[in-house]
Every structure is written in C-alpha cells, then in structure tokens.
Amino acid sequence: MMTPMRYVLLVLVLIISLHYILSFSHEGYGEATSITHIKEKLQGSSSTQKPETFNVDDGLAPGAKANATFVILARNSDLAGISSSMKQMEDRFNKKYQYPYVFLNEQEFSEEFKSRVTELTDAKVEFGLIPHDDWYQPKSINETRATAAREKMVQESVIYGGSVPYRNMCRFNSGFFWRHELLAKYKYYWRVEPDVTFFCDLHYDPFLVMQEQKKVYGFTISLYEYEATIPTLWNAVKQFIHANPELVEPENALAFLSDDGGETYNRCHFWSNFEIGDLDFWRGEAYRKFFDFLDEQGGFYYERWGDAPVHSIGAALFAKKEEIHFFNDIGYRHNPFQHCPQQPAHAHGKCWCDPKDNFDYEWYSCLKRYEGLFK
Pfam families attached here (predicted)? Predict the structure, then answer.
C-alpha cells in the first residue's frame, strides 16, 4: 500500500515530467515571436531548419495595425505600371493587412485611373492633387542659370539631366510629400512606384516593425549617387551642420556617408524608390530646417539633386544609426537593380527571384558601409 509521502512524490514527478514535455514541444516559440528577435531571424542563419513564421501581431490586440499608408506618386499615364506594382503588393502583403493607399499627382487623376486602381484592393484609396507651389520650379530660381545647367548635363549624358519635371519630382519628394493634407493623419508610409517588382510573401507587418522597434527609415537597396548630379550638395550640407550643430544626432550614421569624418561625401545613399519611413521624422525640426536650407541653395534646379541622397543624408545625420533598418527579407526590383533575399529567407518568403541576381555586394552597392555601422 502506497504511503501518503510516496503518493505526494509520485504526483510531483508526474507534474515535472509533464512540464518538461510541454516545454520541449514549444521550444523556441517565445524567441521566434518576440519583436526583439525578428531582425536576427529574418536576416537568416546557418541553420538548415525550415525558417519559422514571424508575426509581429503576436501579443498585440487582434487586428492590430500601425497608423500607416502606401504613398504613390503617379500620373495618369502610369496606370499600367502602377497596376502591376499594386497587384503584387496586394498579393504579397496587403490582401491580409489592407493598409490604405494615397495617390498624388500634379494633375487631376482620370476616372479610368481611379476606377482601375480601386478595383485592385479592398483597402481605402484616396487621390490627392499636389499644390502648385509644392511641385513646380520656384520663381526664385534663375532660369537662365538653370537652363545652362541642364544643357551642360545633356551634353555630358547625365541621366534626366535635361528634365525639369524630374527635378520637380525630386524636390517634391525631398520636402513636400510629407506635408500633403492627405498624409496629415498618418505616421508611417511605404513608397511604391510604377513598374517595380516584389518577389516574396511577407508573413509579418513591416509597419509594426517600424513602430515596435522605433525605426524611422527602412530600405532594401543602397548605392552610390552620380557625382555629376550633386557637385555642391555636400558643401551645402557642411554649411548647414556648421550653422546648426545642435540638430545633429550624436549617435548618427555619418560613417555611412563619409570616410573621413564628414569632410567629404562618399556618395552613398539609400535608393528611395523603395522606402518605409516615419512621417514625423521628416516633419521634425531638424529635417524641415535642413530641407529649407537646401531648397534656398537652388541645387534641385542648378544641379540635379535627388531625393535619394537628400533623404539619406537627412536620415543618417538626424536619426540614430539603430533607427535605420535594412529590410533584408523584402525581395524588390527597380530596374536595373534588385535585392533578392538569400536562404533561408528566400524559401520562407517563397521568393521567385534568382538568388544569384542580388545587388547587395556588387561593387556599386553601399550595403557593406551600412553593415559597418554596427561592427
């Protein structure tokens, strides 16, 4: 006959055994679903195990979403390219999350354009007209000087060197898109362009990564800018820094931009045709003053300053380096470059890009400089 003491010991053994079995069967669950481990997991490892599914909604209220939108700058003539990009975004990600879209144009969108793109999603879609002064060349620009600069660039075969509309676009994206009234209610945005490709399924919400990890800028491709388009940009940047040293973030990413402590610019920038960002960062005092200073120099028209280097310099100087995020698992192409995730992220996302066709470590890529920030 079993004594009371032996009975108690037997019960304890059974409880401990059951706890061990349950713990073993759920091994790694907490780590895989913790937001603090997402970056490490998505960048891959040497393990041959099948990648786990990540969902940053875990631990949040059902249906939790960030206050975010897609931003698409387009003309009516971009309808085919926009439809392709948007359909991929819906199939790869937004069919599940249904984040809204904001379309912006310097002219009114046609009824055909609005009807076609609205049919591609169940999410809310808004169409906005860009204010005249936010788009067109300012009256303060000396047109004689600007014309001469464009003609010189055409002679030197600089891409978009003779285009005024392209310059308008660069200036708008640098300093005005985030001021548009349709974006006033949002905190985060994802920029989408015509004729881009999204290669992989997304099993988590990048907007929530930005929110939960307190990121302000996300990218997939980084590269060197054409030197002929920005000959005096860095001099202007140094003038601004000298006049406003208190605006520079002490834990900045200057080393991504410069190899000599800021004396010269190595021309590295994040390719802004893809970017996921915090609108409040652009709205903040540092970046607003920075853009206004650059705008006064006239370099968007006297040269061909692009929004990619302007955004990149702003993010690198006025944000902490840890607030800039490489979305390694988002397969993306904007001709002629693409980022194709490597294993195990490639299999996890069901990516259809060729892993060998990957710009990350080509000679013209700046990804190594970004990674060097954290070594």
Answer: Glyco_transf_15
What confidence tier does 64 reach under pLDDT thresholds 50, 70, 90? confident
Residue 57 identity (one-letter amino acid)? D
- At residue 262, does pLDDT exceed 70? yes
Compute φ and ψ for 277, nearest 5 degrees.
Answer: -140, 170
Retrieve residue 120's tokens.
């591609």
Looking at 27-36, 62-71, 74-83, 235-244, which range is the least confident one?
Answer: 27-36
Which residue among 225, 275, 303, 323 is the active-site one?
Answer: 275
Active site residue 275: yes
- Dihedral, CA atoms, 298, 301, 307, 309, nearest 10 degrees? -70
> Minimal CA–CA distance to 218: which of 275, 138, 280, 139?
275
Q: What angle do CA 207, 212, 213 make, to 5 degrees?
A: 100
Distance, CA of 73 to CA of 173 (rounded, Å): 9
The token pair at 83 is 């439809």
Domains in the chain, CATH or no CATH each: 68-372 (3.90.550.10)
